[in-house]
Amino acid sequence: RALARRLLAHQPRAHLASRADFKGIATQRAAMGCCWSFCSSEEPSVPEFEPLIGLSSTCKGDDVSLEGTVVSGTGSVLGDSPILQDKGYFEATVLSGGSFAVGVATRDSPLDSVLSPDKAPTAWTVTNKSSVAAGDVIGCAIDQADYPVQVYFYKGKQLLQQLSGVRGEVLPAFSVADGAVLKANFGNAEYSSMPPGFQGIIKCKSLL
Known about the structure:
By secondary structure, the protein is mainly β. The chain has 2 helices and 13 strands. It has helices at residues 2-9, 13-31; strands spanning 55-60, 64-67, 70-73, 75-79, 87-96, 99-106, 123-127, 137-143, 149-155, 158-166, 170-177, 181-185, 199-200. The protein is globular, with a radius of gyration of 27 Å.
């Protein structure tokens, strides 16, 4: 024991400090709930990035053209993932005026024309008739936390319209005609004005 004390006393201080630092780091990691081991050299896993949703290349009208998130031509296109969360939000910028609609619709909605509520009972949208012009940003907020399900449409912070009674599993919907061009925003750019309590749409992923 005496020999061990003498050897420990002559041990370099830098080495002792490094042991203390390592113990402190391990303690901090344990407090943070990290599954670390002194015998493991594995790095902590990085949470997988949640991909943004986009526009569907299959759920669209034949005469609709897509360039990234820009919609032109004639007809309608749906998002590539349904809105399953309680409170989801997305936007569309009107790049060029004409006939258009923005909102939500079921997968079986007719996609060969503009999805206006008076023509498509499976769509809940705001159209160009609602004081929206080129350059405006339309925000769509759907609240599925309570029944009946509500969808709110905004121009900036101004509430344009509120629709009630959304039924079934719905997806983001965009319609264009007569030269209208829309650009969808699912979070790939900063939102213009998202209402409190809402969040961008979370992409649905199968666990199978």
